[in-house]
Amino acid sequence: MQVGIDMGLTAEGRTATMDLEELLATRLLVQGNSGSGKSHLLRRLLEQSAPWVQQCIIDPEGDFVTLAEKFGHVVVDAAQHTESSLQKVAARVRQHRVSVVLALDGADIEGQMRLAAAFLGGLFDAERDYWYPMLVVVDEAQLFAPAAAGEVSDEARKASLGAMTNLMCRGRKRGLAGIIATQRLAKLAKNVAAEASNFLMGRTFLDIDMARASDLLGMERRQAEMFRDLQRGHFVALGPAVSRRPLPIRIGEVETSGRGGSPKLMPLPDQPPADARDLILTPSADELAAPPPPVRKAPPAPPPDINTALRLAGQRQAEMAATAALNPEPSLFEAAENDGKLDEVLRQVLADPDAAFRTDAVLYQDFLVRCRIHRLRGETLDMPAFRRRLSVIRAGVDAEGADDPDWTEAEKAAKSLPEDMQGVFLLLARAALAQAPCPSDAEVARACGSRSPGRARRLLSYMEQRGVIVQRGLIGGLRAIGLPHLGRETAAGDPNAPDPLDTDGDGAAGAA
Q: CA–CA distance from 261 to each of 40, 264, 300, 344, 487 (Å)?
């Protein structure tokens, strides 16, 4: 299906149309100095394409949250989430095909880079069944894909740059069409900018940016001066989705507006100098006021009617009796045998080749279904207990090994770690306690639910920064990992070795 997006008018007064299907396949780069109309252009593109394609906006200034009211975008306040929870949100975004705005204005620059990298990674690592087409718009892209190191940490810069590179270089096969906007081409990483086939160049003044813009548009250097003369909202377009030759365009009107906007001149208040001095140097009455009284808690709600409470209690008892009749409680003698059968069902769940890359919630539902097939009471394992037992089995520890005091100490140390680190920690602990070779990056990636060895390396680096592990490079490219919590260290192992459980042989496909 061919869909044309009305972007505005050409210099001849004709409608400037952008082919949406071609845009999804070839990506777009927008460049222009502050005030040139980039945000207006992106808003026009998003409004015109909203009925046709799923959208995700990486918004560092919170300027696009106004799309939610008219077009139904879900606003995700990134500052209220952790990196791991944002990855899960991104996976659900792809699964349910919901358009979202990732508002990053509540975080500092380094936090924005980390959170955006986590969210883009979740979009990129979605399961193949959810590779629906999606426009991924990144405003102020030079913040997330800088051409040179800045004041942020190398870890945050590499994570953000890697996520942006995946979006622009490898996102097309996953249905992700990157649309990036930047104030200066010179500040944007070249390997990210070079992957775009469509360009919309706005007003710019610096010679180096004008030269790069003219090169991207295939224009002669003497024509680069025209970029200084472009008015606000005027761009020069080129690319298979809009025009095969450089085409001047004036962007059309938009239906929504940003929360900011251009500053307007206003007259200063008529204030005598003496009064002005008092206003800024004298504390106001509110500042001198006593602290507010403590907030009183609301009185407890009155108890429910006794007859209603008895009736509800009777209904619950009847439901519990019916459930117990269908699933009789095992005797104390059968409890150990029941635990063994639950472990067998867990191993059946993990025997699925894709089980390592599914969320714990999906695996838990599969576990409950299999328990009903075997007439077992899977509900005796709640989600926390399920995760603990799943981590033990993923780490390859048998029932006898799970009772070992050293392994008990390892499980205790794992509980104090974030959820996304626990499985990897137990995998390393098993190797350290058995003096086995250090797990490879592919094995670590499987333990954290990914096919990307690059993600495994980033997680190990993060764990080392937090003091959870200590990595030690050895001769021949080998490595060993020590666990200060246990006072143990793995034997030497090859970090580039394939995952022994990867039967398809494509474990390196997701390397970052």
A: 10, 9, 47, 61, 57
Helix 383-394 crosses helix 405-415 at what angle (to 10 degrees)? 130
Could you give the count of Cα atoms lying within 13 Å of 67 in the half-sphere of its Cβ?
31
Query: Of all helices (H) and strands (E), which one includes residue 176?
Result: strand 176-182
pLDDT along the chain (512 residues), means of 10: 82 88 89 85 90 91 87 89 90 91 89 92 89 91 85 87 90 90 84 86 79 73 74 87 87 82 70 72 70 59 62 70 57 54 80 69 78 75 74 59 74 78 84 89 79 85 89 90 89 87 50 39
On whether the CB atoms of residues 190 and 23 are closer than 8 A, the answer is: no
Between CA 340 and CA 344 the distance in angstroms is 6
Write the CB contacts of 96 (distance below 8 Å, at least 6 apart in sequence). Answer: none
The overall pTM is greater than 0.70: no
**CATH superfamily assigned to domain 4-251:** P-loop containing nucleotide triphosphate hydrolases (3.40.50.300)
CA angle, residues 425, 359, 450, in degrees to nearest 5: 60
Which is it for strands 134-138 and 176-182: parallel, antiparallel or unpaired?
parallel
247 and 16 Cβ atoms separated by less than 8 Å: yes
Phi-psi domain of 218 (left: phi exceeds 0; alpha: psi -120 through 50; beta: other): left
What token pair was written down for 368? 């409950």
Upper half-sphere CA count for residue 311 (Cβ side, 13 Å) = 5
Instruction: Please report, for the chain, the start and end positions of each structural domain, with discontinuous segments joined by +.
Output: 4-251, 331-394, 402-512
Three-state DSSP class for residue 427 = helix
The DSSP string of 340-404 is HHHHHHHHHHHHSTTGGGS-HHHHHHHHHHHHHHTT--GGGS-HHHHHHHHHHHHTT--HHHHTS
DSSP 3-state of 324: helix
CA angle 356, 361, 363 (to 5 degrees): 45
Angle at 129 between CA 74 and CA 20, to 5 degrees: 60
